[in-house]
Amino acid sequence: MTRVSFIRWPALVLGLLAAACSSVALAHNPMCECKQIDDQQIRCTGGFSDGSGAPGVTLDVVGYDESILVPGKLGSDSTVTFKRPDAEFYVLFDAGPGHVVEIDQADIEAP
Question: Out of the domains of life, which is the source (predicted)?
Answer without folding.
Answer: Bacteria
